[in-house]
Amino acid sequence: MKQISQVESRQEAGFTLVELAVVMVIIGLLIGGILKGQELIANAQVTATIAQLKGMDAAVTTFKDKYGQLPGDMRNGGTRLNNCAGNCATNGNGNGRIGTNDSVLVTHPATTENARAWFHLSAANLIQGVQVNGNMFFGEGVPASKAGGGIRIGYDDDGGGIGGLANFRPGHFLVVTSAPAGAIGPTNGALPGSQAAQIDRKLDDGRSRQGSVGSFGTNCDVAAAGGTYDEQDDGLCVVVVQVQG
Questions:
Q1: How does pLDDT run across 36-88, given as a tens digit for each residue?
Q2: Residue 43 per-residue DSSP state
Q3: pLDDT tens digits, residue range 1-23?
Q4: What's the domain count of the chain?
Q5: Is residue 66 one of the residues assigned to a domain?
Q6: How far is CA 28 from the centre of its chain?
Q7: Is there a domain that residue 23 lies in?
């Protein structure tokens, strides 16, 4: 009976240190794989968003070349574009600017040239993911960004008053934000600092307060010396990109 008891006691013994070490290594590999996968997904989202911004820049230029007017600013969209009725067909003022002189960060209801620009580009089959006369939500009347939030468009006549950013030339700007139609302020960032920094480095100089790409927002960056991004992701950034169209 003693032999049986000893055998049973040995069979009930716990894991050895080697076995525990193997388990810990496996868990570490799994966690590392998950974190690496998350990083790859985030990088892919940034790459896709950059492609979106470049595509929209090209779409605005193509529209202007094809129709001789800017999207949203076009006077006769109802007769020149397919399936363009309602707000899409409302005439712009034809002054060569999408929206008013300082329309980058203001409200963009469906009746504005800023909103109508997306309707016109969609009706002309130059962008996807936007419904002609869609409601002013991301993925409906306003393009959704691949990395989060969505993309708005507007004009600034001096380039100096966009979220406190400086050194922009007057022109049109794309804005990645969490606000689909309302006014855009520091609390309307959509991208963490690490992703905003990646976009800035790939499209411009990597400085949040200079060049053709800028960012602002609560805990987004440090404004001194051209702006250094907070890549610890302590806050969200509104990303502003100047376009050629």
A1: 566 666 778 899 999 999 999 999 999 999 999 999 999 999 999 999 999 99
A2: H
A3: 455 555 555 555 666 776 677 77
A4: 1
A5: yes
A6: 33
A7: no
Whether this prediction's pTM lies above 0.85 is answered by no
The verdict on residue 200 lying in a domain is yes
Q: Find the angle CA(234)-CA(235)-CA(241) to the nearest 5 degrees.
A: 130
Tell me the residue type at 96.
G
CA–CA distance, 242 with 126 (Å, rounded to integer): 19
Give the torsion sign (CA, 222, 159, 146, 217): positive
Buried b (16+ CB within 10 A) or exposed e, 98-115: bbbeebbbeebebebbbb
Asked if residue 222 is part of any domain, the answer here is yes
Structure tokens at 64: 């202007």
**Residue 245 CB contacts under 8 Å (≥ 6 apart), including other chains:** 57, 60, 61, 63, 64, 70, 172
Residue 231's CB: how many other CB atoms inside 10 A?
14
The amino acid occupying position 2 is K
Q: Which domain holds residue 197?
A: 43-242
Q: Which runs of consecutive H residues, i.e. helices, occur in 104-173?
A: 113-123
